[in-house]
């Protein structure tokens, strides 16, 4: 990627403007959401009242294909209550996410926005934390004084109502198409390398598609694992998760000096279903970091109990 001096100066200027945002600025943008005295658990109950009821057939289908998955409704209710017991409130918590660009990845994020206020977004294609160390540092500075961060990340995968993994129905679109499109494109790129057929290209590290270029680089260590999988589309989000898990924890570790009272890291696989049914999440990590940036507790068992 080649950037002109003018572009670099522009990037530097926008980065300094970014870090200049104060917690007071965040409070004003989130004022409407954070107004009121409802607890996080009360807010989750209100949010869930507007979501579809659990559908027995979809519930069985998702849990058969993704053992360990729970509905977003069940998960959000539990995380709000587990974190409330630790002192996380809507007013003292900044939600930070690293989820795919796909609008289906907003379902979970929108719910949590209604509980904790607007999120700081670290994520990009496939859910990778493209905002990196700079994004995490800025986010930490925006956590209310003596407050908490809830960081949620993960890749996502669709499942259609007839059980096809990697496809999902979308509102207003007849074609039942790929989900996650970025992950599947990266998987196809990798298959071209492991099985042959990859094309020589002059478009390496193009700025206009650098996120997908990074996803394709980060999927490379999983070539054998994906080729050996019984169902490549089912294995794909777990392979990407393993890469993301390393990257996100490395970024937290690099910026742990900025953690205020504590940070909860919830990560796993988002499972998107059609527009009339609930989404699901397979939690794979729910760690609590203390003010010194050390992981002092795993809360994952409380989520599945
Ligand atoms: Zn996606």
UniProtKB/TrEMBL annotation:
Superkingdom, taxonomy of origin: Eukaryota
Domain (Limiting CO2-inducible protein B/C beta carbonyic anhydrase) ranges: 69-289
Signal peptide interval: 1-17
Keywords: Signal
Stated name of the protein: Limiting CO2-inducible proteins B/C beta carbonic anhydrase domain-containing protein
